[in-house]
Specification:
- By secondary structure, the protein is α+β, with helices and mostly antiparallel strands.
- It folds into 3 domains: 8-80 and 109-300, Thrombin, subunit H (Beta Barrel), CATH 2.40.10; 310-396, Pdz3 Domain, CATH 2.30.42.10; 411-509, PDZ domain (Pdz3 Domain, Roll), CATH 2.30.42.10.
- Helix content is 16%, strand content 34%.
- The strands form 5 sheets. It has a 6-stranded antiparallel barrel with strand order 11-12-15-18-17-16.
- A hairpin with a 2-residue loop joins strand 27 (463-467) and strand 28.
- Mean pLDDT is 78; it is low at 13-30, 41-51, 81-108 and 220-234.
Length: 510
């Protein structure tokens, strides 16, 4: 029976209940590779910039002193618009009444949120959670030595809730990357972060479980329980969390989970709590996923993720009987997507995937993690149980469009995706109605799936009439108006059709 995880919240600390969502994704960074400091066999790298850690690998003091210099505090500044009901009056009257007139435009309101991050390279690359930086117009990073830097977002991956940011600095202490696949349940771990803005807080616990799929990525989770979001909010969520009982609280998001050698095995992301504070369990993205995602974000600007192209179901004894299969451990293949890599490689509907490259697979999260570490064009060996017999199949993974090519990010599509909404042209009837108010068109917000619009209090049905003061009458004009506005503040103006005299204005940085 599947566990019903209630009260799961992400562990960023936010000073207000409402935020903007999304952030500009920077370019492909000219194909740069980040060089991780990985732990060699039976050896630990010592941080010369801060002195060698006290103690020996295997104790808490060593782990804390090795990790603390690599963990940073991240403060994000966002803008919140006035909500509907704070009426805003047409241009012709604004100069007369002024913004302080009751019901007048009060403009964007600033708010702050905070979290943690981990330095992964001496030249300033930092990994954190996507939800720590989403919606931010400014990012300030404070190092362990109190130095402060402005940071820019290199890339984000909502599918794993991982983001990479960068500060312009050199010779920074970088964390040593561990092997999360080798972590054992019951192993001691240390969490380092900035809960409640308390800098460099260290807690300890054990690994309680691995391969947890919680269904929280792509959900609206700030400040309380989980509310499912539209499936279009996140492209193929990938969840395979490490569960720990180390204390993690708001502000710990993006912080380090390390073993007693001081090696990074996860990025702290969520807690199971009915109150929003720690209540027994925390969840971290494994370092194997962190390495893959952050490397791709730095090199390509997006994640090059391989897909099998199948619809799956976890197995237990009841499901095995229902599907008529002879094993109750593994992942059942229900359907294929169009241009499925698995189908092309010989997988049949009704097969049970039991191994990937010789490693046993017990659940969908384990399969997702194994496949998610590969890029399109990579070959993997699947072992399937078919009619009670195991069969090995060589599969060439494909990208999400069904090809094997590396996908470059479409910058214009990335901007529209960051807005998190679907837009449509007005119908003739809607245009006729608006013409009474001397408006000759606009762009309708058809649906809101996530991103910046989801946090801006704009409701579906809102009609955008101006972008940066210039009229927009069609979706094409709207796209042209925001094209090339990366890193720029963009102001939107519009109205609701049921209140055409109430003009609303809001803005955020693309």
């Amino acid at each position: 029976m599947k566990t019903n995880w209630k009260g799961l919240v992400l562990v960023g600390l936010i000073s207000s209940a409402s935020t903007l969502a999304g952030f500009k994704l920077f370019g492909d960074n000219d194909g740069k590779d980040v060089i991780f400091k990985e732990a060699p066999a039976e050896s630990i790298t010592r941080f010369t910039s801060t002195g060698s850690p006290v103690g020996a690998p295997g104790d808490f003091v060593y782990a804390a002193e090795a990790t603390t210099p690599t963990v940073v505090h991240i403060k994000s500044t966002m803008t919140r618009q006035a909500s509907r009901g704070q009426q805003q009056i047409p241009d012709i009257f604004r100069d007369f009444f002024g913004d302080e007139f009751e019901g007048g435009s009060r403009g964007p309101q600033s708010q702050e949120a905070s979290g943690s991050g981990v330095i992964i390279s001496p030249d300033g690359y930092i990994v954190t959670n996507n939800h720590v930086v989403e919606g931010a117009q400014e990012l300030e990073v404070t190092l362990h030595n109190k130095s402060k830097f402005r940071a820019k977002v290199i890339g984000t991956d909502p599918s794993t809730d991982i983001a990479v940011i960068k500060v312009e600095a050199k010779d920074l202490p970088a964390v040593t990357l561990g092997n999360s696949d080798a972590v054992k349940v019951g192993e001691w771990v240390v969490a380092v972060g900035n809960p409640f803005n308390l800098e460099s807080t260290v807690t300890a616990g054990i690994v309680s479980a691995k391969g947890r799929g919680l269904g929280i990525i792509g959900s609206s989770r700030r400040g309380g329980g989980v509310t499912p979001a539209s499936a279009s909010s996140v492209d193929s969520p990938l969840e395979s969390f490490i569960q720990t009982d180390a204390v993690v609280n708001p502000g710990n998001s993006g912080g380090a989970l390390v073993n007693l050698k001081g090696e990074l095995i996860g990025i702290n992301t969520a807690i199971a709590s009915p109150t929003g504070s720690f209540a027994g369990y925390a969840f971290a993205v494994p370092s194997s996923i962190v390495k893959k995602v952050s490397s791709d974000l730095i090199k390509f600007g997006n994640v090059q993720r391989g897909y099998l192209g199948i619809a799956l179901d976890d197995l237990d004894s009841r499901k095995a009987e229902e599907y008529g299969v002879k094993v109750n451990d593994g992942v059942y293949v229900r359907e294929f997507t169009e241009n499925s890599a698995a189908k092309a490689g010989g997988v049949n509907k009704g097969d049970v995937i039991v191994k990937v490259d010789g490693v046993n697979i017990h659940s969908i999260p384990e399969l997702q993690q194994s496949i998610g570490l590969h890029k399109p064009g990579d070959k993997v060996n699947l072992t399937v149980n078919r009619d009670g017999k195991e069969k090995d199949l060589n599969i060439t993974l494909r990208n999400r469009t069904g090809g094997s090519d590396i996908l470059k990010r479409d910058e214009s599509a990335a901007i529209m995706n960051a807005l998190g909404a679907q837009f449509g042209n007005l119908t003739d009837q809607e245009k006729q109605r608006l013409s009474r108010y001397k408006l000759d068109g606009g762009v309708k917000v058809v649906s809101i799936d996530g991103g910046k619009f989801a946090r801006s209090q704009v409701e579906e049905g809102f009609i955008i009439t101006k972008v940066n003061g210039k009229p927009v009458r069609t979706v094409k004009e709207f796209q042209a108006a925001i094209a090339g506005k990366e890193e720029s503040m963009v102001q939107f103006e519009g109205l609701y059709p049921d209140a055409p005299y109430d003009v609303y204005s809001f803005g955020f940085r693309l």
